[in-house]
Specification:
Layout lengths: L12 H17 L15 H16 L4 H28 L11 E5 L2 E5 L5 E6 L17 H6 L3 E7 L12 H14 L5 E6 L1 H12 L4 E7 L10 H8 L2 H11 L1 E2 L1 H11 L1 H13 L5 H14 L4 E2 H13 L2 H4 L3 E2 L2 E2 L9 E6 L7 H5 L7 E6 L5 H4 L3 H15 L1
Parallel strand pairs: 3-4, 3-5, 5-6, 6-11, 11-12
Antiparallel strand pairs: 1-2, 2-4, 7-8, 9-10
Helix pairs in contact: 1-3, 3-10, 5-6, 7-12, 8-12
Amino acid sequence: MTQPMLRRGPRPLALHLMGSAMRAMAAMTCAPASPNWSAAWPISPQGRHEAARIRNAAAALGASPEAFSAAVWRRLLEQDRALIAGIAAYRRHPHARRLDDPPVIWREGPARLLSFAPRGRPVLFVPSLVNRAHVLDLDEGASMLRWLATHGVRPLLLDWGWPGAAERRFTLTDVVAGRLERALAAVPGRVALAGYCMGGLLALAAALRRPEKVRGLALLATPWDFHAEDARRAQGLAALLPGFEPMLEAQGALSVDALQMLFAALDPFSIAEKFRAFGRLRQDSPRARRFVVLEDWLNDGVPLAAPVARETLSGWYGRNDPARGEWHVAGLPVRPEAWAGPAFIAVPRRDRIVPPASARAMAVMPKAVLHEAAAGHIGMVAGEGAEAALWRPLAEWLKAV
């Protein structure tokens, strides 16, 4: 059972509050009454066009620059109040995840293999290394694995656990060719392997190394071409690595708060907006409870081992090694086109964490079934529409395999 967090997020709280304040400062600096408002700002052509549209609209309404600035200021204050109210409502909400863990059939260090059914077609689910595994077993009525267990599938979940001293020295080769392959070997016979997000890359690498154990490969919201839609953004994340080196040296890992900062950088304003929206919800509604358990999961992350952090930030985001065919595990190149077995590629169309074009790049597998879901990165596996978006299509594919 996952206990309620003692202090809820969003993490790091100061960063999100500071981001809201900086947004307000930028808005007021660029308001028409400000001496900084000029044709040179904003920099982008789209931004200049929007600035001109706002100026013209204000003039057409007979609004003075001063009145327009006052209106902007009032709107910013309203949004800040709504943000604080949403965060406060989340932090005091009584709901928390209270599901008991299913039986453990294998352990190694902090890692566990959980079995959600005594029989059925075995499917080993591999989550990311930086989040708790229970996003796939989120809450009562919101668990993909418990739902699959009632539809002829035997879900097995690899819970990586909290990295200890040994795990903080792990490379990606240690993760895949070591711990993941030993978890795979603990399951008798052949299994389907399903990876979510970062776990999909690990699952692909393991399947290529142990094809005799894997009868099918499902990759859920899994990135591959890290430069597919915005190479500069990916390289910008990699450029932060030198600044993290003192932490990596001291702690042997990239901390949860540092990881949260990196995720926030992908879409900085969406976090404040979702808390404003939460504050408007009826707090005893199923939607509010789903929000709470998802946010608890998001803010209760796992540190990333320093060698893995360097490999992923520099190699994946910086150089785009996977798409270039340059990513290797234990000396073996990891290339999706080399997987000859059945494959299911699930791509959320509204994904803000893994750009859809990055995930679609996996579909070069000879026997790939490409499934595009009308959902976001997390909503596809744990949102209110997840059963239609992913659970049923995945179950049907697993039965066909």
